[in-house]
Amino acid sequence: MGGALMRLICFLLLSCGGGIGYVNSEPTQEKQALLAFLSRTPHKNRVQWNASDSACNWVGVECDANRSFVYSLRLPGVGLVGPIPPNTLGKLSQLRVLSLRSNRLSGEIPSDFSNLTLLRSLYLQSNQFSGVFPASVTRMNRLTRLDLSSNNFSGKIPFDVNNLTHLTGLFLENNKFSGNLPSINPANLRDFNVSNNNLNGSIPATLSKFPQSAFTGNLDLCGGPLPPCNPFFPSPAPSPSLPPPVAPVHKKSNKLSTAAIVGIAVGGAVFIVLLLLLLLFCLKKRRRQRPGKAPKPPAAATARAVTMEAGTSSSKDDITGGAAEADRNKLVFFEGGVYSFDLEDLLRASAEVLGKGSVGTSYKAVLEEGTTVVVKRLKEVAVGKREFEMQMEVLGKIKHDNVVPLRAFYYSKDEKLLVYDYMPAGSLSALLHGSRGSGRTPLDWDNRMRIALSAARGLAHLHVSGKIVHGNIKASNILLRPDHDACVSDFGLNPLFGNTTPPTRVAGYRAPEVVETRKVTFKSDVYSFGVLLLELLTGKAPNQASLGEEGIDLPRWVQSVVREEWTAEVFDVELMRYHNIEEEMVQLLQIAMGCVSTVPDQRPAMQEVVRMIEDMNRGETDDGLRQSSDDPSKGSDGHTPPPESRTPPTALTP
Ligand SMILES: *[C@@H]1O[C@H](CO)[C@@H](O)[C@H](O)[C@H]1NC(C)=O
Ligand SMILES: *[C@@H]1O[C@H](CO)[C@@H](O)[C@H](O)[C@H]1NC(C)=O
Ligand SMILES: *[C@@H]1O[C@H](CO)[C@@H](O)[C@H](O)[C@H]1NC(C)=O
Ligand SMILES: *[C@@H]1O[C@H](CO)[C@@H](O)[C@H](O)[C@H]1NC(C)=O
Ligand SMILES: *[C@@H]1O[C@H](CO)[C@@H](O)[C@H](O)[C@H]1NC(C)=O
Ligand SMILES: *[C@@H]1O[C@H](CO)[C@@H](O)[C@H](O)[C@H]1NC(C)=O
Ligand SMILES: *[C@@H]1O[C@H](CO)[C@@H](O)[C@H](O)[C@H]1NC(C)=O
């Protein structure tokens, strides 16, 4: 991703300082540097830069919107041979992205690369570079992706890699790096690979979260995901500040063999686990028995079963009060439902807390017959029984593939329960933000688009057919079907709480006017949906502290990044591995920005949002490949484009 994308974003959002007016004519010095580079580096004639044309029009070169500096240089697989001449590329001091992957470049990385201090992404993989880990690279302290894999680098991996604090991906596999692994620890490092080198010694604790395949094929690495280190020859701790992860535990028992130690350790662990299981089993059995033996007081048991499992305390009054009304209050099912259980079945179900929200707590309840449902236990309901039932009537009628159906409700003085279908695939929030890093399948672009569209359809159905304001759109209320279609849940509950929205609602999704008036509307739903789209695009939770400044919300953060920084960093790094999706991301970003307009009237209606997403130029051609805004073959004036292949996902190229 580079200048073209940013120009596009800028153009679409119309919010960038200089617009796209071509103010400055030409980055002359940079042009000279580029010409010097190409003339002094033998290459196949795939790249021909016309010296009388602007450098910004050259194949592989992208400039900023003002065309005043070169923003990215990407020459993958164009047959460049030999060393990078000094004093050429090092002069592109504004460069953000440099990709020279898959050439036959060799020699050391020139020391003047240390001038490329603004570089965010450096892709040098699949060449024949040699020498030690380039010191110049450890000075590029804004780097987020560094790929030196499949080269001939040797020597130690320096501890100074830690100077690259923004690093999210570090790829050093298939080289000849030797010595110990330093404890590399950038906060956001998500992808890491040092496999197939000559490393030895223990894997530092900071890196042990990465999978085994990130370390295999080395001389003698141990610990972490690999088998434990030999305790009698503990390797020196790679970093003095961090103890080696495994060795010290075993160190003391000097007279036992490794096998014996391992045996004892494993045996001990198994014993403790067994003991714990036994204890748990006993406790659980006792709990289970109690409600069963009691002579079934329906409502009382609801309260108890639910509170017990939730681990919260409920006052005695609650329980008896519920029991008194039990006869008059029954579980009310809506027509067309598939369930045939009664309140007592629900009471005997085992419950597990799914989440605590602003309007109450949700439980997953597994009935004895095997059915699983979600029970939502509302707190602080402000309306009386009649109004409650009327609203339930409205909500129970909603039937749509992208709306989680409300199946039943229960109302008593002290207990208000809603019964919904259970969606085993979980929520968008869990999918997007749950355990990032090792072992997680990232949510790919196609699925994100699918979620965006299906959630939009569900919400539009609520608005148009149901005339219902959802009132609480957020990622944890977007649930997924196994096929990754989304359904919206938790809709239309605001009227139950009187005129005021519960103030504890997740702030990041609230439209500005709702903060003031506490009243949700169709347009405030659209705002929240816009925030949700931004969340899908950026991978950031709207209430996440990592947005930098305190109190800044996701829409403003996106605007500031797009306007000021001129980088593709606004998009989720997990999306960087997919190719030819830039245009779609920008289109969706544009829709999202429309939804989060400060002025409610400027936001589109939900059905328009659906149409815009449907109309998005998802240019799938017959062979399944997408047309790309970033396709180098476009606008290259008849020059043979570099053979930029659709790289497999793991290559992580720009
Ligand atoms: C483009 O140039 C104009 C005028 O020189 C300047 O005001 C604007 O900030 C520049 N835009 C960017 C993104 O550098
Ligand atoms: C180089 O660019 C100039 C000006 O754009 C053009 O007149 C000329 O034909 C180009 N030369 C080649 C070889 O494409
Ligand atoms: C690197 O930057 C320094 C200071 O800005 C400058 O003096 C030097 O000439 C630059 N080196 C190259 C190769 O551009
Ligand atoms: C990395 O940071 C340390 C401490 O800030 C500093 O001493 C060292 O010179 C830096 N290394 C490089 C290559 O910039
Ligand atoms: C790799 O580097 C070593 C020296 O470190 C050198 O002897 C060898 O020829 C290099 N191999 C290639 C393929 O460049
Ligand atoms: C690391 O690289 C090796 C070799 O390219 C590959 O087989 C392995 O799957 C990679 N592991 C990870 C976690 O990326
Ligand atoms: C790791 O390799 C280096 C150099 O080959 C050697 O000096 C060192 O003793 C080795 N360390 C371990 C723990 O094997």
TrEMBL record:
Residues 348-616 form the Protein kinase domain. Residues 289-321, 615-654 are annotated as: Disordered. One of its GO terms (cellular component) is membrane. It is found in: Membrane. One of its GO terms (molecular function) is protein kinase activity. SUPFAM superfamilies: L domain-like, Protein kinase-like (PK-like). It comes from the Eukaryota. Its main location: membrane. Keywords: ATP-binding, Leucine-rich repeat, Membrane, Nucleotide-binding, Phosphoprotein, Repeat, Signal, Transmembrane, Transmembrane helix. Residues 1-25 form the signal peptide. Residues 615-637 have a biased composition (Basic and acidic residues). InterPro entries: At_inactive_RLKs, Kinase-like_dom_sf, Leu-rich_rpt, LRR_dom_sf, LRR_N_plant-typ, Prot_kinase_dom, Ser-Thr/Tyr_kinase_cat_dom. The chain crosses the membrane at residues 259-283. This is Protein kinase domain-containing protein. It comes from Citrus clementina. The lineage of its organism: Eukaryota, Viridiplantae, Streptophyta, Embryophyta, Tracheophyta.
